[in-house]
C-alpha cells in the first residue's frame, strides 16, 4: 500500500512539474521572471528528482504485492520490445541537432515517450503498470498537443535536417535499445523483455 501511495505521489510531483508549461504557462513565465532562470531550473530539477525517486521506489514496492487487472498474452511482450526500439530512436533524435526526424515531427521525444508508454501498457496488466505507463502516456499526449500549439503560435521554424544526423540518431538509439533489451532491463528492473 505504501508503495502505491509513493508511486501516485511521485507521478503527481514529477508529471506535475513537467506539466506547468501545459496548464499554467503564464504563471511559469512570471515565476521565471521573479526568481530568475537558474533558480527556477533548480527548483524544477529538485521537484523532478524527488518525483522520480518516489516513482522508482513506489513502483518497486508495488511490484512486490501486484494487483492484476488483466493477463496480457505472451506475444505482447515481444511486440513491446519492437515498439520500444523506434521509441529510443525518437528520444535520441530529439537531442541530436539537425535530424530530419526532428524537422518532420518537431517533438520526437514526446512521441518516443508515447510509444514507450503504450508498448509497456500492451505488455503489462497490473495496477502499478497502468498507473505508471498510463500516466506517462496521457502526459505525453497532452504535452505534445500543447507544444505543437506553442510552435504554431510562435511560428517556430525547424531546419530541414540531414540524413547523416538521422543515421547518428538511428545508431545511438538502436545501441541503447539493444543494451536495455538484451541486458540492462533485466538487471535494472528484474524483467527480461525477451524472456531470457
From TrEMBL:
Lineage of source species: Bacteria, Pseudomonadati, Pseudomonadota, Betaproteobacteria, Burkholderiales
Subcellular location: Membrane
Keyword Transmembrane among UniProt keywords: yes
Domain NnrU residues, every copy: 7-193
Parts of the chain that traverse the membrane: 43-62, 74-96, 167-188
Protein name listed in UniProt: NnrU domain-containing protein
Keyword annotations from UniProtKB, A to Z: Membrane, Transmembrane, Transmembrane helix
InterPro entries attached to this UniProt entry: NnrU_dom (IPR009915)
Topology of this chain in the membrane: Multi-pass membrane protein
NADP recorded as keyword: no
Superkingdom of source: Bacteria
Primary localisation category: membrane
